[in-house]
Amino acid sequence: MRKATxxxxxxxxxxxxxxxxxxxxxxxxxxxNTIYRVQVSGEGTLVLINKPSGHKxxxxxTFLVMFRPDAPGKKLRHIxxxxxxxxxxxxxxxxxxxxxxxxxxxxxxxxAVKAQLQGNKVHWRFKGNAGFDLRAEMVLARGxxxxxxxxxxTARRKGWYxxxxxxxxxxxxxxxxxxxxxxxxxxxxxxDSSYLSGEFMCTIPSALVCRNGYTVGVxxxxxxxxxxxxxxxxxxxxxxxxxxxxxxxxxLFAPVLGQQASSLDSGDxxxxxxxxxxxxxxxxxxxxxxxxxxxxxxxxxKNATCSLNETLENMIAYAMNDFYSGxxxxxxxxxxxxDVPGTVKLVSALHPLSIAIVTDxxxxxxxxxxxxxxxxxxxxxxxxxxxxDIRG
Length: 392
Prior knowledge:
Blueprint: H1 2-17, E1 27-32, E2 36-41, E3 46-50, E4 56-59, E5 62-68, E6 75-79, E7 84-90, E8 97-98, E9 106-111, E10 114-118, E11 121-125, E12 132-139, E13 148-155, E14 159-165, E15 178-181, E16 185-187, E17 197-198, E18 206-211, E19 214-220, E20 238-242, E21 248-254, E22 263-264, E23 269-280, H2 283-294, H3 308-319, H4 322-325, E24 327-328, E25 333-334, E26 344-345, H5 350-359, H6 362-378, E27 383-384
Antiparallel strand pairs: 1-2, 2-3, 3-4, 5-9, 5-14, 6-7, 7-8, 10-11, 11-12, 12-13, 13-23, 14-21, 14-22, 15-16, 15-18, 17-20, 18-19, 19-23, 20-21, 24-25, 26-27
Helix pairs in contact: 5-6
């Protein structure tokens, strides 16, 4: 009798305290902060609700683990058709080279089978794998923080690993308003292959997809970007926007396959955190949000006192003032006395020529472009002086 009473009390408490508690596939709970309300299903699917707009975005608890036992042979390759450098890898079977990230290793798709809520945190549970152990969680901090996803892989066999979060919504290119992947893929300039943009390429550490006026992205957490100048050798992660099915989907992988951090012995672990972003507005709106809110960037130009066009006009007026710009009419070049007294120096006539063409200005052409062209065609070096005692 006592057990039955306790069971009835627990059932009633669950009903009143957790009215959304349902079976797997249905909502089992939710959490919220100032900006987001997140509904969580039994197997871990997240419904991200932007509270100001009411817009819902579904993020799946899905990861892609890439593995190969041999060294991937990562190298940069120049792609002539769009004059850009991208990373590439030896194809696992040893025949050829690929710049398609999904062909660089065997891929194992891991989707959570169960979710456990603990305060403002969701723990995802995955089926076991003979080669590795994968754990992941999502935390929604207070205030205006975006959901933070952290994954950890522990190797059970020696090899090269890369883990990607691939749970953001995917969209066919025909239905997208625009995409972004650093540095050259934007608007509807969609990559023809699944090229990876390493950290050193990323103006923001994210790929973005906009549909119906709403932009979704997956961005590296700022804690994963140490204060240094990233290079192709030190890049800790990579982003891409074209998935294996050829659709638009923001994805993030860490570490980059072939980097030293991707080489694990049995028992070694790797861990990485990223943010889920869902913002009302176009790609640029989300781009600016990630730069300023997530990355803390603040030194960017604003039209505080005048427009950008007026700024350009002021710059041209400054350059056309012989005194303030240091123009030497006789020697047909700018003064260089700050470095080498008594000299002028001229590197290019292309800039004033371009400005003369764009502004359709004969004055700029006659007073700057033409004299500079004459200078460069009659001098052996950039630096020039009429004095013979110059030794600089």
